[in-house]
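User: Let's play a game. I give you a shape written as tokens, and you guess the letters that built it. Ready? Here's round one.
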């Protein structure tokens, strides 16, 4: 405008928006620039809480909500957001993580990777532990419930001779309860954990790792301490399996199934001919 006061960009935009009937964005108060503050990221890698900007290392922090909105459901999706990260999963047992070309993929169940993985503060000694897809489990459970398809059992593993996997039980327990409450499912899926080997770790839940009264060697002690929190989640299972012979407690096959609620045994009621161990033709 000639001969008069000029319009600021914000005022001009507001007038134009009003002329076309568009909602105008609120104007910021003069002299108070908008400040965008990022939420702090706390790092405890050096055994103390400190801001990520104070830690002298390259770091990428991603929020779970943003990953969920992007449709990420597994560790295999992370390379899309983390530069230099490669995740190779020919199968969960042979999972391999490398960062900027550094990593180990010996495919040996007794060798830990040079790339450390932690989930909910729990160290994952084998990288395949991170591939458990909780998002896909929720998707499948929702589909079954909406189709009135009964889900009798959710099977998890917590230390077996073939997989060496240690699944998270608590998130599955919470997911099951949340969906059953949401859809008013009267009979909840039974959570069974195959802890054929891992069951013995529960004896270390209250162990004094500092005093180490059993004089366990340092390498074994460190491994137990890293993983004992995961085995504490066994209490969320409805039942779990124990194999005594696999630790050498007995010289013959001897197994046990622990069931939390007695009423759950009713679900196993059936005719003897429907169980392979009790087939009349074989047993005589």
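Assistant: Ready! My guess for every position:
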């Amino acid at each position: 405008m000639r001969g008069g006061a000029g319009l600021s960009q914000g005022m001009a935009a507001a007038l134009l928006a009003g002329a076309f009937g568009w909602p105008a964005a609120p104007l910021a108060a003069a002299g108070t620039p908008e400040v965008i503050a990022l939420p702090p990221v706390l790092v405890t890698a050096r055994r103390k809480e400190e801001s990520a900007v104070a830690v002298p290392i390259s770091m990428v922090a991603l929020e779970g909500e943003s990953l969920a909105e992007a449709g990420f459901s597994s560790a295999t999706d992370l390379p899309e957001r983390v530069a230099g990260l490669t995740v190779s999963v020919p199968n969960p047992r042979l999972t391999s993580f490398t960062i900027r070309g550094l990593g180990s993929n010996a495919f040996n169940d007794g060798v830990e990777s040079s790339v450390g993985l932690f989930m909910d503060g729990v160290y994952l000694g084998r990288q395949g532990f991170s591939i458990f897809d909780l998002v896909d489990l929720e998707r499948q459970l929702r589909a079954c419930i909406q189709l009135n398809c009964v889900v009798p059992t959710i099977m998890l593993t917590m230390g077996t001779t073939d997989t060496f996997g240690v699944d998270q039980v608590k998130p599955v327990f919470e997911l099951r309860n949340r969906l059953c409450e949401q859809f008013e499912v009267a009979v909840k899926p039974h959570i069974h954990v195959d802890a054929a080997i891992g069951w013995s770790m529960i004896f270390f839940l209250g162990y004094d790792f500092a005093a180490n009264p059993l004089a366990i060697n340092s390498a074994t002690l460190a491994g137990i301490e890293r993983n004992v929190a995961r085995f504490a989640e066994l209490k969320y299972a409805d039942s779990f399996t124990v194999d005594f012979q696999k630790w050498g407690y007995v010289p013959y096959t001897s197994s046990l199934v622990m069931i939390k609620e007695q009423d759950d045994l009713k679900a196993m009621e059936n005719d003897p001919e429907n169980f392979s161990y009790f087939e009349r033709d074989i047993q005589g």
